[in-house]
Amino acid sequence: MDSQPKRKLTAREIAAQFRAEIAAGKYGPGAQLPAARGQATKYGVALATVQSAYAQLRAEGLVRGRAGSGTYVLDPALGEPSPRDAAQGLIDLRDEVARVSADLSGLVERVRRLEETVGSLAGESDG
Predict the structure, then answer these.
(1) Are 11 and 52 in contact (CB under 8 A)?
(2) Which of 19, 26, 114, 124 is the most buried (most CB within 10 A)?
């Protein structure tokens, strides 16, 4: 039997799941997202966590909340990217940021080794 408690999802992770589902077309323009209270129960998190995830999606322009009604995927205005395209763009951007971060980490390591080499060469010429 597993004695480790299952880690709860963060608002960012829940938002990422919905973003991916919007990008995949599971929730198209005008579709209502599941009720936040039900999602909180499903994920075993506080209601505020799911509300925060939905707020992130609103800030990204993917959804709109209607008081007393729920949260809906936005239907894009003419000439603007659809929520699906916007969500995919955010996923692509996240992947690109991860790639650039990995490249920068590699550069930091190369600079560190270069500084060590230069430092040891300088030490040899002093001695």
Answers:
(1) yes
(2) 19
CA atoms within 13 A on the CB side of 70: 13
Q: How far apart are CA 28 and CA 22, in angstroms?
A: 7
**Phi (first) and psi of residue 30, to 5 degrees:** 90, -10
Euclidean distance between CA atoms 125 and 127, whole angstroms: 6
Rounded Cα gap, residues 51 and 35, in angstroms: 10
pLDDT in tens, 62-101: 899 888 889 999 876 645 667 777 888 888 888 899 999 9
The one-letter amino acid code at 46 reads A
Q: Regarding beta strands 70-73 and 63-66, do their DSSP bridges make them parallel or antiparallel, or are they unpaired?
A: antiparallel
